[in-house]
Design brief:
The chain contains 6 helices and no strands. The chain is mostly helical. The protein has one domain. The termini are far apart. The relative contact order is 0.09. The mean pLDDT is 89.
Length: 143
């Protein structure tokens, strides 16, 4: 099996496990996410438990994996090098948070929820793609 086929299968397996985790934890349910964000009302702590579980696995996992000379299916690790907070990062994070709070979805759960064939998930997905396309066109236009 070629190296690129191994990478593709590893990415597919990782995506499947991620999607399965989203379904099992009910994070594809916008009401669950909105309930977590409703700290002044009927707060739902489920997402907090999901986050704690994810951190409990990922923090030691990152420390262990990064001791390796390179990833299993790659030549090197792709780690962020930028450490400063600029207006684009803060604005993007704020926009993501507002969208997440309004819709109860972010890209991972939105893609995963497409298997339900429910129209609202498809509408969100199309709007998400349109926003990404619009940003790409605006950010890459010639001055």
């Amino acid at each position: 099996m070629s190296s690129s086929a191994k990478r593709l299968l590893a990415a597919l397996a990782a995506g499947f496990v991620f999607g399965l985790g989203l379904v099992v934890s009910d994070m594809v349910n916008p009401a669950r996410v909105i309930g977590f964000l409703d700290v002044a009302g009927k707060w739902d702590a489920t997402l907090l438990m999901v986050m704690i579980g994810a951190l409990a696995v990922s923090i030691p996992g990152f420390r262990w994996i990064l001791k390796r000379p390179h990833p299993l299916f790659g030549d090197g690790f792709s780690l962020p090098t930028k450490t400063d907070l600029d207006p684009r990062l803060i604005g993007g994070a704020a926009l993501f948070g507002v969208g997440w709070g309004l819709a109860g979805l972010c890209p991972g759960p939105a893609v995963t929820a497409l298997v339900t064939l429910a129209v609202p998930f498809f509408a969100f997905f199309v709007a998400m793609l349109a926003g990404a396309f619009a940003y790409d066109r605006l950010a890459n236009r010639k001055a």
